[in-house]
Amino acid sequence: MLADLLVSVLFIVYAISVLMGFGTILTWVERKQAAVMADRIGANRAYIRIPGTQVKLVWWGLFHGMADGLKMLVKEDWKPRTYDWYAYAVAPWVVFTPVLLVFAVIPFGGTLHPAHLWAPLAGFFGDKSYPMQIATLDGGLLIIFAFSGMTIIGAMLAGWSSSNKFALLGALRAGSQMISYELVLGLTLLGLILIYGTVNLDAMVRHQSGTVLGFLPAWGIVYQPFAATLFLTAAIAENKRIPFDLPEAESELIAGYYTEYSAMKMGLFMFAEFIEIAIIGALFTTFFLGGYNLPYMNDAGFAFPGGGTAALPHGAVVVTQMVTFLAKVFLLCSFQILIRWSLPRFRYDQVLMFAWKFMFPLALANLVITAVVMWALGK
Hints:
Blueprint: H1 2-37, E1 48-49, E2 56-57, H2 63-74, H3 85-102, E3 111-112, H4 114-117, H5 122-125, E4 130-131, H6 140-161, H7 165-196, H8 201-207, E5 211-212, E6 216-217, H9 220-223, H10 225-238, H11 250-253, H12 263-288, E7 297-298, E8 301-303, E9 309-311, H13 314-340, H14 348-376
Antiparallel strand pairs: 1-2, 3-4, 5-6, 7-8, 8-9
Helix pairs in contact: 1-12, 1-13, 2-12, 3-6, 3-12, 6-7, 7-10, 7-14, 10-12, 10-14, 12-13
């Protein structure tokens, strides 16, 4: 019992550290990547001086994120004169907390056998094994939709409770946009459910450790390339990032549904957005890029086409899987930031028309075709 509790605590600490780390690093990546794309230097003014010297540690602007966090902590927590105090205070946490909870059902590695890492651990852990996932739930995919739907409530609460017409308009935009694209997200994943026959995320990843046609890695993007494109597009819209950032369009609504927020409450909204970039990357990796595995990789090592195998020590497998997962997520985060600084903002009517008149029919058609093919194959 104590061993299980210890492993669970370690997984939780690791998950929170990864998400907070991604949220912090991505604020820097967005600045520097945007600067590179615009042929600028980017953030490079914040620094730390070594005591007693004139040496300034700039480190490519990495300290700007720390400076921003410190600024948010010490700023005055200003509140509007007329507002619903309870909804106003709860809204940032209703947006921020579910984003963290989604990661609980995402597998970030294979199976951990503590006794195989170091022989003396067998006395404490015995022969127990632990899936590298905080909550090993059979209905993990359903939990993701449940938690992601809660963020809609937080955005609506923030806009309504502020007693500000710009915030309320941003909340209305956020609610209709997020509901619209969440439907598209669900339809794109139904095709994978038909193929994998499960809503357990770890089972989906293990299904992708095989091959297709004897040589292609059995990743979800190979089975459902069209659905992968629809999923990533809808997920970016769900996160309200350019070109879908109409709920917080600065040129129209000041800051949208969190216009009346300041200090760390505003910081929670902004930080949740960057963490959600990482969550989108983690979900896309889990569903379409083989999760924590490299091509032809499993918990024992590699199984290459043609029957060749390459066994690896358990510790090497665990580290490789964890690093592979983080690398895939980071690349997808960078791609999302690339899109954010490449495309112009849509009009709001175009955002909803794009969801209902373009993406929804395509997602439905993809589901129907997948179902017909699975029926024809007798699956």
